[in-house]
Amino acid sequence: MNIRQVELVRTAYVPKEISSEKLPAVACIGRSNVGKSSLINRLLNRRNLARTSSTPGKTLSINYYLVNNCFYLIDLPGYGYARAPKTEVRRVLALMDAFFSVPARINLLLHLIDSRHGFMQSDLDFLQKIIHLDFPILTVLTKSDKVKSSALKRQIQTLKEQFGVRSVPFSVKSEASRLELEAIINESLKERE
């Protein structure tokens, strides 16, 4: 994927702001502080496009990045973190419910999991909510450079056997993992044109 142009074109805080355009889309979601912003920046070869923070739960909107005027990379709010006020948590949950009520526009959902911890209850709860929807899901094991390769292989096998999900390791430090993820995204964009 030759990234020539990336632009933040829309930020949705309420359901009516969710994009209804028919461009292909790849969406990213995961627990708060899983490394979603770092993955987006690395994948799009931009340093500070998606804001990174050591404080979990900073993404409280749906952010649409238009890539090469061809597809959207969508940054969804993290889940499993509730330090925000209850009204804000309810707003984000309503926003996410509205987003996933029209799943046909999603070519691929990248479900990010911290490879140091594996599936946690909040990950399972989220997967349970969306597994029946009509789009492919790829589990991306972030921070994979912090886990031994043998443990990572076991984790990938377990995810396949127990949950039936395809998964790949990812590290912002690894060009090989970026290229692998990029190839999977390219294929998903071709498959559902």
Q: Roughly how much helix do the residues carry, as a percent range?
A: 25-40%
What are the secondary-structure elements, in order, as H or E? EEHEEHEHEHEH
Helix run count: 5
Query: What is the CATH topology classification name?
Result: Rossmann fold
Q: Structural class, from secondary structure content?
A: alpha/beta
Shape: globular
Low-confidence stretches: none
How large a portion of the residues is in β-strands, by DSSP E? 15-25%
Distance linking N and C termini? 16 Å
Which whole number gives the mean pLDDT? 86
**For the record, what is the CATH homologous superfamily label?**
P-loop containing nucleotide triphosphate hydrolases
Described by strand count, sense and barrel closure, the largest sheet is:
7 strands, mixed
